[in-house]
Design goal:
Order of helices and strands: EEHEEEH
Largest sheet: 3 strands, antiparallel
Strand order of the largest sheet: 2-1-5
Number of helices: 2
Amino acid sequence: MSDAPATTHTHVDIDGHDFLLSPGQDLDDLMRRIEDAARSDGTFVGFISQGVRLSALISRTSRVVIAIDDDPATGPPSDMGDYAHAEWEY
């Protein structure tokens, strides 16, 4: 058993594209900005993935799934696409 502190990895899947968020980002703020953009006709939402500053155009038809991996030693979720393309109840 390791004494190293646990690291959490947060994955954001946008329309089938998985992004690993860089540490230190405010997840609650990102989720609010995504929700606001989804209510609009389309708005760019910025975030940092593995040190790269990205912007994604989020609209009413965007599919966004956020997965928090408390045990990154097991690797990323096997297939975020299964979540991103599930049938959602509106």
